Amino acid sequence: KGVSPKAQIYMLRVCDASGLCFEDDMIAAMEYAVNNLSAKIMSISIGGGNFNYHCDFDPLAAKVNWVVDSGYTVIIAAGNEGSGVSSPACASKAIAVGAVDKTGTVPWWSNRGSALDILAPGVNIFYTYSCLAVGNCDSYWYAFSSGTSMATPQISGVVALLLETKPTLTTTQIKELLYSTTN
To answer: Residue 125 forms beta bridges with which residues?
Structure first.
């Protein structure tokens, strides 16, 4: 639960065991969350394509905008190709997150472009690692990893803390608070 230990977390799986992810499954998961869960934040670390601008015409981006209109704040990893922001992070109502290292340098692989909203620590992040991936569940496992998917949960945690403090904040107000307090 990271920086917001009081947060309740729901996880929806959209990829199969081999890591293959279909757009229809992602859209279905977003619809399921809006229609069945009592959450206020959606954190997404999946996407594809590269856009140097907002891509609201893209089906995943359009669905993210619908999720925001349904009352969620949506935080999405921008991607790791060193070019435009991936979909669905390029949705105009999402918070697209790029990575930065401990010196404040944006790594070459962090996606960029006018659809990028904010940067967060995403280089050499220490995290819990799945015992299933290691093949040994007799103990806890940890690893270091880098990517915008490591930066995104940090922003999601900050948004959770903001909502714990003031539950009536709108996504627009949250964005204003985030952007006015970063450099």
So the answer is: 145
Question: DSSP 3-state assignment of 173?
Answer: helix
Tokens of 53: 């601008």
What pLDDT, in 10s, does the model give residues 99-148?
A: 999 999 999 999 999 999 999 999 999 888 788 878 888 888 888 999 99
The beta strand positions in the chain, using DSSP E, are: 41-44, 48-51, 73-77, 85-87, 95-100, 118-121, 125-129, 141-145
Contact residues for 70 (Cβ-Cβ < 8 A; gap 6+):
34
Among residues 67, 75, 76, the alpha carbon closest in space to that of 35 is found at 67
Nearest to 73 by CA among 44, 108, 106: 44
